[in-house]
Input
Amino acid sequence: MGIGVSVDGGDGPEVTTPAAGSPPVVLAGDSPSPAASQLPTTATSGRRKVPISDPSAPAGGPGIVRRTLAGMSVPMSAFVTALALFGVFILMTGHNPFAVYYQMYRGSFGTWFSFQNTLLRAAPLMLTALATALPLRLGLVGLGGEGAMVMGGLAAAAASMAAHNHGPTGIKVAMLVAGALMGGLWIAFAGALRAYRGVNETISTLLLNYIAIALLNHIVEGPLRDPASLNKPSTPPIGDENMLGNLPGLDVHWGLAFGLVACAITWFLMNRTTFGFAARMVGGNVRAALLNGLPVGRLIVITTFIGGLCAGLAGGIEVAAIHGTANASLVTGYGYTGVLVAFIARGNPLAVIPVALILGGIGASGGLLQRLFDLPDATVNVLQGILFISILFSETFYGRGFGFLRRNRRPPATAAADKPAVVVI
Amino acid sequence: MRRAMISFVSLTVAASAVAIVAVATGLSPSATAAPPLTVGFIYVGPKTDYGYNQAHAQGAAAVAKMPGVKIREEEMVPETVAVQKTMESMISLDGATLIFPTSFGYFDPHILKEAQKNKSVTFLHCGGLYVPGKHPENVGSYFGYIDEAEYVAGIVAALTSKTGKLGFIGAKPIPQVLRNINSYTLGARSVNPKVTTTVIFTGDWSMPVKEAEAANSLIDQGVDVLTAHVDSPKVIVELAERRGAFVTGYHANQAALAPKGYLTGAEWNWAKVYTDYIKDIQTGKTYPHLLRGGLKEGFVSVSPYGKAVSAATKKKADDAKAKFMAGTMVIYKGPLKDNTGAVVIADGVERRQTDVELEKMDYLVEGVVGKTH
Output
């Protein structure tokens, strides 16, 4: 059938894709159309070796410095190009691009106040990005961070009411656990639909966002409404003593610590455990994974659950650290910016951290651009858009020009057949 | 292979070169001396939305013309920690000592938190209910009884309508919206008791697609005068004009969007409120912490009547307006029934505008077709 798996020591296992001309493998319960249409178009010529390992993941050995530099050079060039193109745009609005760059720097990283502002904005992005980044490793494109975050916030507010006589620590723990679990279940639902019913996860997670917002509005305006919240329907306030405070010495709440730790843990999980290896194998070649007896369905559900856990936690933190109640203000768009972060980070949880900081910084500097240059709010969206396209475009330069840069392809996972859960690695 | 990389690098270089040329020929950043009073304005949506935010931006524009005052504006600031950071940034980077965060959702917890942190800065908020002792001393809240202008608009609508059916598109069934619907209907039925107002709630403040659907559906049901309480009635006003229906505006003057069908509208006059506040602060007077006013105080106004409004209608509307200006008009007085038949204000009871009971309104009066939830 043209499917073969070889595992070697050097750069990690290499999985070959089907040979040219061989018909697509249709698995039990497979929905052929998305799988066929999403297969990489260039993978049809001859037998081609596709590495599963991420080029940005350190592989150890003497090549690590060269590999890291090479891995950084392409995105950095893309970043500089994006800034330059943005400069042209600024020029067209009649302003001096360098004055704008300087103010952006001042508004995002230039002062201690600005840097903390950036950290504060980056914290929820790290968590919501993981909801997209982890499934990306399995070849799934999920957009559900926004919905998971909203549901997590709602669950956290409900938990604060249920746990009201367990003391401040009990309430805080209940809020974060409930928020995370709710978010996890929310995305895992889309994952299960993908794994067992063949429902396209991109569409289902997107639609689940709208359902989550509608549910939030319904519940805060109905069953859980605090009668005292007249013109802004909200759940009862959780109380100042039950709120998450700031990190010691910083004007940034604990969400930042949760974000950093979550990125580190999920990176370890995806890059240093058999679970992560199996998951990336599914992303590399789902058929090969199935032939090796990997429990693809279960891997999809668990990975989407962990991703949702992070986004739900972001919602719980919004309620516990900022709003002190759940209401329509929870719909922030952090979930969608998180998708941007995950794609720019190419699904690598550790890369999520610097990318979230850059996008957080762009957001933090947006206000200054409006107030000093009278530029419209959309200016920073233009920069985000240019950056996104520039970085995605730059990916076509991997594997060209530098022999040591390898392209990282991940065909989408397809629906899984129920195979025995034997991981033969 | 290598050529691809080189062309990518050269693209980068070329783009940078363009940027450098930009500096050589471009404008230098403007630098002006610090004025005595820097005032910050924060909006939740775009400044040019033909609605809630534009009304506030017009107020800010009036402030900008005052001597010794400099304004800083920021739009599209969500009701999250972002608004706290915008306030802090206005204070620490722009030197603002007075801030008008204009969206309702900025108050609790964001303004309250920043007011605790920055005792020397004054925060004046639109819509909140300031409670002495509970809220910080450097906070104030202001709002206008815009339902007085809605009452007058209701009179114009009822007398211009041919079908006797008015349509109201509201965001959420909260007290401020319900009060506008009720005052509009009471105004309409004061001149024609057979008139009804059909209400559709869209569920959120800015839902242009749903607003358009609601407007179409109301017109299809025979409604010939539309009005709305959403952040920006732009879509509804334009759609009514296109379909040949009449419309009364809200927040700001939307006559330019519907030259034929725009009858009148309920407008904010924040310029009056903001310039008064700043005069108080500049002269060192104590400003009111809880400020409310209607037509008489100049906080709200009625848009100039459109072409379709007859002379007799104008007279009736002007009579009602004169009563508001004289302070003799009471909109909410018993006996008043809601649209399920229950008595909500008993016979002989008068609820004047300042009555806080009205700020908890949870019913739709008789003559309104719709439900509060």
